[in-house]
């Protein structure tokens, strides 16, 4: 997560600000004007992702969902160990 935020800050999309009451936390704020560019990029990406998902058959979709559920269970098991 830190790497992602670092990249967003370096690219000028967000700024980090100290949290007013929690010294451990930061507030991420979009930079002026960056929100429209981000929305456009994410909108385009979302459309491409939906196009890819819509090509799956019902059987393929069931395999993907099963896989993702098993991965979530595996990761949840790490967090509780």
How would you sum up this structure, described in words?
This protein is α+β, with helices and mostly antiparallel strands and 81 residues long. It is 65% helix and 12% strand. It has 3 helices and 2 strands, in the order αββαα. It has helices at residues 2-10, 34-54, 58-80, and strands at residues 14-18, 26-30. A two-stranded antiparallel ribbon has the order 1-2. Strand 1 (14-18) and strand 2 form a beta hairpin. The chain is flat. 0% of the residues are buried. The model has no long low-confidence stretch (mean pLDDT 88).
**Share of residues in strands:** 5-15%
- Shape, per Cα inertia axes: flat
Average per-residue pLDDT, rounded, comes to 88
Helical fraction equals 55-70%
| Unreliable segments of 5+ consecutive residues | none
What's the Cα radius of gyration? 18 Å
CATH architecture: Orthogonal Bundle
Q: List the strand order in the largest sheet.
A: 1-2
Main sheet properties = 2 strands, antiparallel
Going by CATH, the homologous superfamily would be: Winged helix-like DNA-binding domain superfamily/Winged helix DNA-binding domain
CATH level-3 fold name = Arc Repressor Mutant, subunit A
Derived from helix and strand composition plus strand pairing, the structural class reads alpha+beta
Query: How many domains in all?
Result: 1
Number of helices: 3
Q: What distance lies between the first and last C-alpha atoms, to the nearest angstrom?
A: 22 Å
Order of helices and strands: HEEHH
Q: State the total count of DSSP E strands.
A: 2
User: What's the CATH C level?
Assistant: Mainly Alpha
């Amino acid at each position: 997560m830190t790497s992602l935020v670092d990249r967003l800050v370096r690219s000028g999309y967000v700024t980090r600000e100290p949290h007013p009451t929690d010294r451990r936390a930061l507030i991420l704020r979009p930079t002026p004007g960056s929100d429209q560019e981000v929305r456009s990029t994410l909108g385009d990406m979302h459309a491409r992702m939906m196009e890819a998902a819509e090509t799956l058959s019902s059987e393929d979709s069931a395999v993907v969902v099963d896989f993702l559920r098993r991965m979530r269970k595996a990761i949840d098991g790490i967090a509780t160990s």
